[in-house]
Design goal:
Blueprint lengths: L23 E5 L2 H4 L12 H6 L17 H15 L3 E5 L2 H4 L9 H16 L3 E7 L5 H4 L8 H17 L5 E6 L1 H10 L10 H24 L4 E7 L3 E2 L3 H21 L4 H7 L12 H5 L5 E5 L4 E5 L15 E3 L16 H13 L5 E5 L16 H19 L4 E7 L18 E4 L4 E4 L1 H12 L3
Parallel strand pairs: 1-2, 1-11, 2-3, 3-4, 4-5, 5-7, 6-8, 7-10, 10-11
Antiparallel strand pairs: 8-9, 12-13
Bound molecules: beta-D-fucopyranose.
Beta-D-fucopyranose (FCB) binds next to loops.
Protein name: Beta-glucosidase
Organism: Streptosporangium vulgare
Keywords: Carbohydrate metabolism, Cellulose degradation, Glycosidase, Hydrolase, Polysaccharide degradation
Length: about 450
């Protein structure tokens, strides 16, 4: 890997912004999106191996079989982060590497990989932040109902203890789930993600069992001595003139996870709306106490707000069961390659709202970033769109800190271009470009700029 380190950036002269001392700067990835090595060293199949092989589910039939080959190239990837000066790296552990069937026998060779990765990070002064579950559910568990089967919650806690048992002497910060909303409502309610089921009732039951698994995993991690424990949610402020519509979507997107986790109750409006699909009998006595086990850190993944308008006759959006009569989209803003609007103010609003409505839990941005159609020209990638997206969102995060939000850090999504789920490799989110034919890594302009932000602790 060569980095044109001599190149420097004039940070836009729109006022100098400093972040608080000790602010954590880093980057994030996820196992299935970058590791490849899908059959190496005893890894079992995950729902994403199955789903990506199901015709029509993932763009052009792409799979994570090879991805960025990070499993073999992690020393190079860690060296890139070191050269960029990143403090911290958020990665996820592949459950089917550690327990090929999701429960029962442990595969020590799978744990060995994370052992090597953690040691490499620490040797380069980069603090690991572990996510235990970023969507690659062992297929054996899915064959028994996956997140719709209550038993999975206990299996998840066992796996958490196993992972902590091996890495807990060196890893302080543990997060349980990444974006349970996506697992539940993309995976089980709308079929857009693995395992590809499309039944609203399953979506709500999966959501509950994910939360229960989180709570049991928090207990297991604490019992084995984890220092800092949290969870990551994908949250979107909902914008719209029609207050009931915006409230409903806010419930289905945000409060359905925030309220049980941080207040120990499901929001009444969501419970009511979902009654047309489910009687909620999967919620047992004591579950909400388990789910609301105190956490040390809330991970926030923010990409864009959700704009909604009331429109009679509009069918429900399958990812928001019960949302008929509401039209989505139409923000007056530039768009990324995902078609997502670029609206940085949403991040300020979100962080301030979390501080106001759910006080007392420190926040960290565990993902923020954008896809653009990048091209390599003479060994460089001039990704001005991403650079300005990141600049705008860092300014927005800073404004929230000034407004009182207890924001501790920022992790860009993503370190590398990678397997973007149903979009396959066609959407590039990396600050480092990956040429999939050669596995060559090229830091984009945004990476060099970000490195300068990290060095200055500000903009
Ligand atoms: C989030 C996911 C992450 C990546 C980004 C673009 O929903 O957590 O894996 O796909 O979106």
């Amino acid at each position: 890997m060569t980095m044109s380190a001599e190149k420097s950036y004039d940070l836009q002269d729109s006022g100098v912004l400093r972040f608080p001392e000790g602010f954590v700067w880093g980057a994030a990835t996820a196992a299935y999106q970058i590791e490849g090595a899908a059959r190496d060293d005893g890894r079992g199949p995950s729902v994403w191996d199955t789903f990506s092989r199901t015709p029509g589910k993932v763009h052009a039939g792409h799979t994570g079989d090879v991805a960025c080959d990070h499993y073999h190239r992690y020393p190079e990837d860690v060296a890139i982060m070191r050269d960029l000066g990143l403090h911290s790296y958020r990665f996820s552990i592949s459950w089917p590497r550690v327990q090929p069937d999701g429960s029962g026998p442990v595969n020590p060779r799978g744990l060995d990989f994370y052992d090597r990765l953690v040691d490499e990070l620490l040797a380069n002064d980069i603090t690991p932040i572990v996510t235990l579950y970023h969507w690659d559910l062992p297929q054996t568990l899915e064959d028994r109902g996956g997140w719709t089967n209550r038993e999975i919650a206990a299996h998840f806690a066992d796996y958490a203890a196993i992972a902590h048992g091996r890495l807990g002497d060196r890893v302080e910060t543990w997060t349980t789930l990444n974006e349970p909303w996506c697992s539940a409502f993309l995976g089980y309610a709308s079929g857009i993600h693995a395992p590809g089921l499309a039944d609203p009732a399953l979506g709500f039951s999966a959501a509950h069992h994910l939360l229960l698994g989180h709570g049991l995993a928090v207990q297991a991690l604490r019992a084995s001595g984890a220092a800092t424990v949290g969870v990551t949610l994908n949250l979107s402020p909902v914008i719209g003139d029609d207050t009931p519509a915006a409230e409903l979507v806010d419930g289905l997107q945000n409060r359905i996870f925030l309220d049980p986790l941080l207040r120990g109750e499901y929001p009444a409006d969501v419970v009511e709306r979902a009654r047309r699909f489910t009687d909620w009998s999967f919620v047992h006595d004591g579950d909400l106490e388990t789910i609301s086990e105190p956490i040390d850190l809330l991970g926030v993944n923010y990409y864009h707000p959700q704009t909604v308008t009331a429109r009679s006759g509009e069918p429900a959006n399958p990812v928001y069961p019960g949302s008929e009569g509401i039209a989505f989209g139409g923000a007056d803003a530039p768009q990324t390659a995902m078609g997502w609007p670029v609206q940085p103010f949403g991040l300020t609003d979100l962080l301030l709202r979390l501080s106001r409505d759910y006080p007392g839990t420190p926040l960290i941005i565990t993902e923020n970033g954008a896809a653009f159609d990048d091209v390599v020209e003479d060994g460089e990638v001039h990704d001005t769109g991403r650079l300005s997206y990141l600049d705008g969102h860092l300014r927005a995060a800073h404004a929230a800190i000034e407004g009182g939000a207890d924001l501790r850090g920022y992790l860009v999504w993503s370190l590398l271009d990678n397997f973007e789920w149903a979009e396959g490799y066609r959407k590039r989110f990396g600050v480092v470009h990956v040429d999939y034919a050669t596995q060559r890594r090229t830091p984009k302009d945004s990476a060099l700029w970000y490195s300068e932000v990290v060095r200055r602790n500000g903009l």
